[in-house]
Amino acid sequence: MILGDLLGAPVRDADGGWLGRVADARFALDGTPHQLMSEPRLLGLVISPHSAASFLGYERNGLTRPWLLARILRWRHRGSFLVLWEDIAMVGSRSVRLRPGYTRYSTALQDAGQV
């Protein structure tokens, strides 16, 4: 599957309840560096209950300028969360379903960064 096909896909919990749409993906660089960088690994998907549009990097806590844009994007993506790849039960052609007992992490990767 191409990542671009997954962006905007509806996300449901294990019981079929609506959680939002895939807004972004998070990658980690693992292992020893090859020519220019380490191998990327898909860490998880960012789910947004209000918008499937890009965060433009404003989900990171330190970005506050331009303040109006930062404020609008934070409001638009309120309630968004990161779900680790291990918590995804199924990726279908039109939707994503999470496993029972999945964990919601901060989109800023503060609490999932050590995974």
Q: What this model shows, in words?
A:
With 115 residues, the chain is mainly beta. The chain has a single domain (3-98), classed as SH3 type barrels (Roll). Helix content is 12%, strand content 32%. The chain has helices at residues 3-6, 67-76, and strands at 10-12, 18-30, 39-48, 81-84, 88-91, 96-98. Strands 4-3-2-1-6-5 form a 6-stranded mixed β-sheet, with no helix packed on it. 23% of the residues are buried. Residues 111-115 have low confidence and may be disordered.
Could you list some keywords that capture this structure?
115 residues, 12% helix, 32% strand, globular, disordered C terminus
Secondary structure: elements and pairs:
Blueprint lengths: L2 H4 L3 E3 L5 E13 L8 E10 L18 H10 L4 E4 L3 E4 L4 E3 L17
Parallel strand pairs: 1-6
Antiparallel strand pairs: 1-2, 2-3, 3-4, 5-6
